[in-house]
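#struct-pred
JK: can someone run the complex with uridine-diphosphate-N-acetylglucosamine? inputs below
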Amino acid sequence: MTNRYAVILAAGQGTRMKSKLYKVLHPVCDKPMVEHVVDQITALEINKAVTIVGHGAELVQTHLEGRSEFALQEEQLGTAHAVMQAEDALGTLEGTTIVVCGDTPLIKAETMEALLKHHDELKAKATILTGKPEDAAGYGRIIRNEEGLVEKIVEHKDASEEERLVKEINTGTYCFDNKALFEALKKVSNDNSQGEYYLPDVIEILKEEGEVVSAYQTDDFEETLGVNDRVALSQAEQIMKRRINEKHMRNGVTFIDANTAYIGADVEIGRDTVIHPGTVIKGSTVIGEDSVIGPHTEIKDCKIGDNTVIKQSVAHDSEIGSDVNIGPFAHIRPQSQVMDEVKVGNFVELKKVKFGKGSKASHLSYIGDAEVGEDVNIGCGSITVNYDGKNKHLTKIEDGVFVGCNSNLVAPVTIGKGAYVAAGSTITEDVPGEALSVARARQVNKENYVNKLNLNNN
Ligand code: UD1
Ligand code: CA
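RT: done, structure tokens with the ligand placed:
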């Protein structure tokens, strides 16, 4: 097979986004646009990929490190000038180069593969991926001659009224004979309305040199949507969301309302799990089988087991086991490990806690920086006092402990195995195993006190 290379254009500032964030780093379904593109490029068999980055786009490099080489485009003088920056890396190589924009996050590897195949079959020097969107405004138009062969691409801003009526557009993805590309790039001028070096001009240059130039039209225009502003960003989000949710449905996941469930591109969900409305699941989250997530739940970077229910809650960067019941209105903060068969109920917050198998905190608790053993019962309103104003301290609650309601466990402190803490206690010293600890003022009843008070007032 001929060698294949890829150039990903990602140096544009994205003025139309009106953002501090580099355009190609704007996320679509929780992943930067350019990463979606590189994911698809990686799925093709490519010998070398070069991403063109702008000045100050270190973040783009961080996101793509190890998956692409990089070439810097100091000044954004146009897409042809951008590709030229890959000359050192690719210029002398024999093979086919696919060029794709970092702002077309929905492009699929299978479409690029079909484009490459078409290019090979026609032995073309350049093949453009074209499409017919509902609204062609803003895109470069494909101008064909009487025989229907591609002549050139005219940018929207440079197009005549007649040319603007053309429905077929340049999607910004092309393949080229690598050497012919770098030769032709040298001949591109910036004599146009934007004063930029346009990559699409390479088509006309090759055509005039008598080379075979072709076009491959995709009927799925959604896939080639170019994101230039926040309206298109929102459209891309909707399309990608639908694509991701459908993938999960095909794999056996139920969505009660797929329109209101936002699942990140890398999330994994097991069979027979049910996703309720208003649910956002992000990052590297992995969810097992038969679980129920939502309604109105946010989960990020969590590993969740089977048959676990999480409703109206937030969980970040934590491990949650199987047969666990969380919520409504619980908050599982980072570095928590919630073991199997646990119950974390209404208005309970866990932070950096190992919460042992079968243990329960059913209502109104804060448990932070703690190790909770198995079968522990934490009564309503009980908290770990983990912070002394300077440092955080550990609370250890051993297996089988019963913490009565509204207790304060002032860390560092250990409650020994099987111990009882009386309701309303403020525990400042370790409690031995099997002990009952009562740490509160003894109740005093002052008989007839109210009547005496009333007499004095009269
Ligand atoms: C481009 C095409 C247009 C096509 C459309 C498809 C040109 C001149 N026009 O227009 O024919 O219909 O894409 O979406 O190519 N970039 C750089 N360096 C630069 C300029 C741009 O790296 O100097 C990158 C951008 O980051 C972006 C891509 O190239 O990822 C395309 O640039 P953009 O300005 O978005 O081009 P469009 O106006 O959308
Ligand atoms: Ca664009």
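RT: quick notes.
Residues 230-250 form the longest helix (21 residues).
The longest strand covers residues 343-355.
JK: thanks, will look after standup
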